[in-house]
Design goal:
Layout lengths: L4 H4 L5 H22 L6 H8 L9 E4 L2 E6 H19 L5 E3 L3 H25 L10 H27 L4 E5 L4 H19 L3 H23 L1 H6 L13 H26 L11
Parallel strand pairs: 3-4
Antiparallel strand pairs: 1-2
Helix pairs in contact: 2-10, 4-6, 4-7, 4-8, 5-6, 6-7, 8-10
Length: 277
């Protein structure tokens, strides 16, 4: 019996399946490469891989394992993933609207708190007058607040630019309840770090890395998606496998270039062949 057109249109094409397999293979290869890099610990591999993202001067250490980014950026990318997880669990992947006004203003307020805490930390490091002594716990918490907004902005930009079936009446977070779930997950992450065990800190360090690489890849796949004629045409995730693979390659290339440049600066213009992320 012939398959209905509605179901046929939801099925991935052979080319999409090949690109999906290639993207999955790339992800597995990157994970194995970081875990099995000869002569380099996982902690060091993650640190070097993200060496160009931030100063890495206020990194969190839990269970004897150092997270690869500073406390503020670690909180931001962990909350970024938590927010997208809640959006997915609530079935709002196709959302085309911001949360309700009061919720949106609260998210904006959390971003401004991160900016204020960052300014205070900068003033303190410069030896100038500042409101309070900077602390890693405040960096982590304010970073988490900003991560919520980052996730929503990226989601809405991609949906608006690429989806044909974007739901203009659906909000990315439906209200206070959804935001509360995100913040509750963030609180669990803080609690996991406070337990000070590598059983939890190592997975969180990996999630920070996934958040950075994933966010870069998603942003960088936008131009290839438009170049491939996918603007306003996407109705299934497999359509994005091809541009996502390009975005992942661009993201990894960008991270390597940044890390090498920073190492080059730190070593006074000399970069030994083996000192690569």
């Amino acid at each position: 019996m012939e398959m209905p057109l509605s179901r046929r249109g939801d099925m991935a094409t052979p080319a999409e399946r090949r690109w999906t397999a290639a993207l999955l293979g790339m992800g597995i290869g990157l994970a194995l490469g970081a875990a099995l890099m000869p002569g380099v610990s996982l902690e060091r591999a993650l640190y070097l891989a993200l060496h160009g993202i931030c100063a890495q001067t206020h990194n969190l250490v839990a269970g004897g394992f150092q997270l690869p980014l500073c406390a503020r950026d670690s909180g931001m990318y962990l909350s970024y993933l938590a927010t997208l997880g809640v959006v997915a669990a609530r079935g709002r992947w196709r959302a085309g609207r911001l949360p309700p006004l009061r919720v949106s203003l609260s998210i904006l307020g959390m971003f401004l708190l991160m900016a204020a805490d960052g300014l205070n930390s900068t003033l303190a490091e410069m030896g100038l007058s500042h409101a309070y002594e900077p602390r890693n716990d405040l960096r982590l918490l304010t970073g988490m607040g900003a991560g919520v907004g980052l996730a929503l902005v990226v989601l809405l930009v991609l949906n608006t630019a690429l989806r044909r079936d974007v739901e203009d009446d659906t909000r990315a977070l439906g209200g206070w309840r959804d935001l509360g779930v995100v913040l509750a997950i963030d609180a669990l992450i803080v609690g996991a770090l406070a337990l000070d065990t590598p059983l939890l800190s190592v997975p969180l360090a990996l999630l920070v890395t996934v958040g950075v690489v994933g966010n870069l890849a998603v942003v960088m796949m936008l131009i290839p998606s438009l170049a491939l004629g996918l603007g306003g045409r996407v109705t299934r995730m497999s359509q994005l496998a091809h541009p996502a693979a390009i975005g992942l390659i661009l993201a990894i290339t960008f991270l390597i270039a940044l890390a090498r440049y920073r190492l080059w600066l730190e070593l006074g213009g000399y970069l030994p062949p083996l000192m690569v992320p």
